[in-house]
Automatic annotation (TrEMBL):
PANTHER family reported for this sequence: OS02G0130600 PROTEIN-RELATED (PTHR12242), PROTEIN ROLLING PROTEIN (PTHR12242:SF6)
Superkingdom in the source lineage: Eukaryota
Cellular component terms per the entry's GO annotation: membrane
Coiled-coil regions, chain positions: none
Hydrolase as UniProt keyword: no
Transmembrane regions listed in the UniProt entry: 12-35, 68-92, 98-119, 245-271, 283-303
Name this protein carries in UniProt: Protein rolling stone-like
Keywords carried by this UniProt record: Membrane, Transmembrane, Transmembrane helix
Amino acid sequence: MSLSPADGAAYWLRWQVFVCGALIALPAAAAAALLPRLRRAAPPLRATDLWVPCWAPLHPGWLLGYRAFALAAAVALLARLLVGHGLAVFYFYTQWTFLLVTIYFAFATAISAHGCWVYSKKSSRKADESHGFLNDDVENRGLSTSVSVEMKKDETNRLPSYFEQIVNEKRAGFWGRCMQIIYQTSAGATMLTDVTFWGLLVPFFYRDKFGLALVTDGMHSLNAVFLLIDTVLNNMPFPWYRMAFFVFWSCAYVTFQWALHAFGGLSWWPYPFLDLSSSGAPLWYFGMAIAHIPCFFLYWLIVKAKHTYFPRMFPHAYARTV
């Protein structure tokens, strides 16, 4: 007999619920237990890692400009979706993930703006010191000419030399660490969202009744595009142990869905494989739990490939300081 959440206790006391509940609780508990130990062994995050590009000729303002553009585009897409469908769009994991990506770009834009302000102050101070040195020796024409040549070289190399000087700067603060956590959680959730949508939902569940819409379905591609471009530009590390936060994020979404159905807030499941009425539900939950591993490590491999191959392909432009 097929049951729905509207049937009350009969639905929630089925054996599938307890098995699926364990498949949610156990990964979250394991991630919570391992995270503090793994975090202590990781190198600290520097404040400059958050806003300095990994490309030496690229001024930090370019990264700021891109992040501001991505933030504006993400906010516009979310606003258009909310105007058309209301808060009900947040029944879906896709919109949870897109909101998280938007929050990341809000953090990144603010921190990049602050970093550019710090950079401009240091650049101005260096320019003032250089001009003072030049004025002290202006009486000697030969020396003045020599210094002028050196000054031109210094102007050309100022940005790369600045990157070399920032390597040992102070550690990132609380908000900087939050930004990195949101970045990595967004990366894993984006991979899971897009792979599930294009590889599972569209071909098998929504094949006949699904119509591709520019806004809703564009989110399943634009979220990855926004993050991947930022990854190509930024200098942020991507420690694998932060997959724990990705696990927490997905567990929070499923818990949210269960609570909505248990208290009568929703009578249908946004994703068919979340329905607990089927005897195959534990297999779906187990499969989705396992899918978190390749989805997160796919993005980790992208970052790893960037740090491995870009220095070989662009030895004079790529200036990784991670």
